[in-house]
Amino acid sequence: MKVDRQENDVIVTMGSDEQRIQLDFLERMNTALDQTETLATAGGALVITAEGKFWSNGLDVGTIMAYSPEQQRDFMHHFRHLLGRLLTFPLPTVAALNGHTFAAGGVLALALDYRVMREDRGWFCLPEVDLNMRVDPAVLELVRSRLRPTTVRDAFLSGRRYTAADALEAGIADAIAPGDLLLERARTLVAPLAAKPRANMTMIKSNLWGGLHRRLTED
Fold it and tell me: H or E element: which one contains 11?
């Protein structure tokens, strides 16, 4: 993962592959967030994006299935902790969705404050119903906290693939943009928030999501 500062904002670029989520991914993301907190200056925001066809294609199921039972428990523990960390991160956060955002990748995007989706490529999809996978109750609560009830119902029960226009209408995306303007649009979207008092914003996030944060991070 690359961590760069553009003016006051910190840009985390996950990579150019599928960004499949497993223990190594979680470790690298947490390291990137540590670096972000070090680099962040007043009036800045965190933007998480990627390169190529995918923002994140969900869990690396093959790798996770090869883990020992203890490693699988560790993975779920650390994944939930990452979601909790993003919920109350001490900066405004926005996902610049450059490509496909599927399953656990979609949940990861929903843990950020805002989402901007590339309008000419990529789907948002929660396909667990078609993958015969259960949804962790705390993860489901996170999705419910971000999306309208009818969107949660349709996304989970149908496994629908949302285009950018569909995602905007459903309230999944807060804005859409052409690929060459995606990062700029994401930064512009959260710029007014970046100027807010950071300590107070962090406290408000904790008040908004405190119960969910505890559910995600409880051992």
Answer: strand 9-13
